[in-house]
Amino acid sequence: MDIEVNNLCKRYKDYTVFDGFSHVFYGGKINFLMGPSGCGKTSLIRIIMGLEGYEAGSVTPIPSSRVSYVGQADSLLENMSIYNNIKLVNDSISENDLKSEMQKIGLDMSIRKRVRDLSGGQKRRVAILRASLYESDIFIMDEPFKGLDENNKKIVMDYIIDKTKSAIIVSHDESEYRYFRKKLKDNVFLKCMD
């Protein structure tokens, strides 16, 4: 499913974030949205997900039940185990399947480990894992590789390439776009905001 944004205008009081922004995010593709801090990337994806209003224009509506999202904050339940955090979005996953998925994303630990006992990079990978295991039509990620070292970043990017059919990835790091482009060729699209 393509998401069409037409002539969108977003303001916060006297500050115009964007005015007349138009773009098509293609279904079945990885869509990168890049730009400097404060240019409206996060506002745009919040509008696409129906979490934020706008002053003018139009956006193809997406049923919220069909969106999987990883924000800049991990939004995990710290006192729960990795397994129980995953079960919140995928009640049918078996322990063995979860262990297998954890290995693919570079998490070699017990599924019973509490989230509060994980490092920042481990929490980030659990958040991405949880979102990827939710059955959705589109995967929206806002700075998903923040806090990951280069080795783990590549492991996670390969995992996303393997698991994701349609995605919007917000980033300020052009090397992340280049990595996806090298692996997926014409299935990756870039839109820069300034």
CATH architecture identity: 3-Layer(aba) Sandwich
* Average pLDDT reading: 90
Q: Specify the CATH homologous superfamily.
A: P-loop containing nucleotide triphosphate hydrolases
Question: Approximately how much helix is present in the residues?
Answer: 25-40%
CATH class type? Alpha Beta
Radius of gyration, whole Å: 17 Å
Major sheet: arrangement of strands: 5-6-7-3-8
Oligomer: single chain
**Named CATH topology:** Rossmann fold
- From the helix content, strand content and strand pairing, which structural class follows? alpha/beta
Strand element count: 8
| SSE ordering | EEEHEEHHHEHEHE
Largest sheet: 5 strands, parallel
- Count up the helices: 6
Strand coverage percent: 25-35%
Total separate domains: 1
What is the terminal separation in angstroms?
26 Å
GO molecular function: ATP binding; ATP hydrolysis activity
Keywords: ATP-binding, Nucleotide-binding, Transport
InterPro entries: AAA+_ATPase (IPR003593), ABC_SmlMolc_Importer (IPR050093), ABC_transporter-like_ATP-bd (IPR003439), ABC_transporter-like_CS (IPR017871), P-loop_NTPase (IPR027417)
Protein name: ABC transporter, ATP-binding protein
